[in-house]
Design brief:
This protein is of the alpha+beta class. Helices cover about 20% and strands about 45% of the residues.
Length: about 270
């Protein structure tokens, strides 16, 4: 009887031991055959797919880039005063225009500049300095019809590659100052196609560009470089857009102007 009971205990121990060994072996086998998270390969994109996606993202961002220009009122410092006469020995040149005559002359207290006077009938107006005397040959005069006004524009040089543009409004035999541009070479262009001209002025290398617009019977001016944070900006008349560089020698980006906003165009 005791021998049978001892044999039974021995058999039970062997069975339980075998089951435990089998369970541990199965767990070791599962751990060995199942890869860890660090061993699972992550999905990857081909270089072509990545490049295409990046380009599309860049183009989408560029096409949506819009910058509001900050316009400030142009303070008119130019003056016109009526005078009785001009000493004949100070007269340099006379030029006939449709509404009268321009007389270019010099002043004894200013040996550097050339002055102009507008004469209509018996009225004579000193319209101020219009350029440097040594650049007298560069002086030009143009009659314009802009902003529902008859304008007179004088362009004179005041230094190497430095010009001054003066615009005057003429009506009923009188002349009044309208706009002075002394920050570069100016052009009158309908930039946004609304039928009203803007004035664009650019100078220097890299190019600095300013945009003037006529609003509520006054001129407003915006510094385009400053608004865009750009190193160089100039207006391309053929493409009717602004070419912008954010670093010297960098890629040119194109911007169009509409309703006071510069919007980058992807072409």
């Amino acid at each position: 009887m005791l021998q049978r009971f001892g044999a039974y205990l021995l058999l039970s121990a062997l069975v339980l031991g075998g089951c435990s060994s089998s369970t541990e072996a199965q767990q070791q086998l599962l751990q060995t055959s199942s890869p860890s998270s660090s061993q699972i390969p992550s999905p990857s994109l081909s270089p072509a797919t990545t490049a295409d996606s990046t380009m599309k993202d860049v183009e989408a961002q560029l096409s949506e880039l819009q910058v509001q220009l900050v316009f400030e009122q142009v303070i008119q410092a130019q003056t016109v005063k009526q005078i009785s006469s001009i000493p004949p020995d100070t007269v340099l040149k006379e030029l006939s225009i449709s509404s009268g005559k321009l007389v270019f002359f010099k002043k004894t207290d200013d040996v550097e500049n050339v002055y102009a006077a507008y004469q209509s009938g018996n009225s004579l107006y000193d319209i101020g300095a219009v350029g440097g005397e040594v650049y007298m040959d560069d002086l030009s005069v143009t009659e314009l019809s802009l902003f529902n006004r008859s304008l007179l524009r004088t362009i004179g040089s005041v230094g190497a590659n430095a010009s001054i543009y003066r615009y005057f409004s003429i009506a009923d035999g009188t002349i009044e100052p309208f706009l002075t541009v002394d920050n570069g070479h100016a052009r009158e262009i309908d930039v946004d196609g609304d039928g009203v001209m803007e004035v664009i002025s650019s100078h220097g290398l890299p190019m600095q560009t300013f945009l003037y617009k006529w609003q509520d019977d006054q001129f407003m001016m915006a510094n385009v470089n400053e608004a865009l944070g750009a190193v160089s900006v100039y207006f391309d008349e053929q493409a009717n857009d602004f070419k912008v560089q954010y670093e010297v020698g960098g890629v040119e980006k194109s911007f169009i102007y509409k309703d006071g906003v510069m919007k980058q165009s992807v072409r």
